[in-house]
Amino acid sequence: MAADRAKVYLVGAGPGDPDLLTRKAERLLAQAEAVIYDKLVSPEILALANPNALFVHARKQQGLQEEVQAEIFAWYLRLRSAAGAIVRLKSGDPMVFGRGAEELEFLTQHGFDVEVVPGVSSVTAAPALAGIPLTYRGVSPCFTVLPGHRQAVKEIDWPAFRHSGTLVVLMGVENRAQIATCLIHGGRPAGDPVAFLEYASTDKERVRESTLEEVSRGGVEVEAPAIFVIGEVVRLRTTPPSRVQETAVRQS
Length: 252
Description:
Number of helices: 8
Largest sheet: 5 strands, parallel
CATH topology of the largest domain: Methyltransferase, Cobalt-precorrin-4 Transmethylase, Domain 2
Order of helices and strands: EHEHEHEHEHEHEHEEHE
Strand content: 15-25%
Number of domains: 2
Oligomer: single chain
């Protein structure tokens, strides 16, 4: 490998359970010379990496995302002459709300050899593990994935999703009441069932069921990270017997 063409792998770490890591991701971690990882990557997955690798924690914080992203770019340039693989380990799938495309663009523009290694996204994994189908014949023919951070809440055309089947909101815990209010004002039924899927695939996993109306009133306590699922499919939830779940009591 040429010294000025370090190989970077944008790797999806999945939702948290190391058993949901792809075989390719595990192999690359074992061979990595450097690992730049997100805060949501579990310690169990990091333990699979080469213990002699350089570990760089990408500590993204609210309000400092651009500064931290710039530092990640700077680390790529510092590691340009790395002799082995550089693994950029991102939770879920690197190309789903993880700014993976921006990093891919940066690396390509700066002459790096780069490869994307898809991961299991929490978008589909969390509902599946909770026994919630995102689509179901006669109930929901499709699902839509939306960002729930503050800027997105301001910009999204919420009425466009009043008849959009299942909605899956990522990064929406902090703004959950506002999101629910926007959906109701946009024409979504206030009685729509919702579920918050906390810490999916980990030993802290928990499911909290409620309604859009209850969420809009601020009556549902949720701990991030959590996936926010909205739609009639939540009523179809079946808890797999092999998974111990806790469902919050619906508030009256």
